[in-house]
Design goal:
108 residues; elongated; mainly alpha; Methane Monooxygenase Hydroxylase, Chain G, domain 1; 84% helix
Length: 108
């Protein structure tokens, strides 16, 4: 069964929402590390990782739909934006983990 335009939009906005929330949590983690609160930094990273996983799963579902469909979903602007959000969240996660480690070393 092919995905409807409404289902596609809902899935894309879910992907955007989870990715954006993950990115915010990762950047919040840096702020906690900057102030020396490494427990909160790690908690923010964990929240971000949970949201990132949900975004990743939503993205995987869309890719699976593309493989089994002839509708050309991957060319739609909303999905392109959603994938951009996912990539930015991953970049923020990697960046945040490195910055937190740097602040941890500086605090010793």
């Amino acid at each position: 069964m092919a995905i409807t335009q409404e289902q596609l939009e809902q899935a894309c906005f879910q992907l955007i929402s989870f990715s954006g929330a993950a990115k915010s949590d990762y950047l919040e983690a840096i702020e906690h590390a900057k102030s020396g609160d490494f427990a909160e930094a790690e908690a923010a990273i964990a929240r971000g990782n949970d949201e990132y996983l949900q975004a990743h799963n939503a993205h995987f579902d869309l890719i699976q739909e593309e493989v089994s469909s002839e509708t050309g979903l991957l060319t739609r602007l909303t999905l392109v934006h959603a994938e951009d959000q996912l990539a930015m969240a991953e970049t923020a996660r990697l960046f945040s983990e490195q910055i937190i480690e740097l602040y941890r070393r500086l605090s010793k």
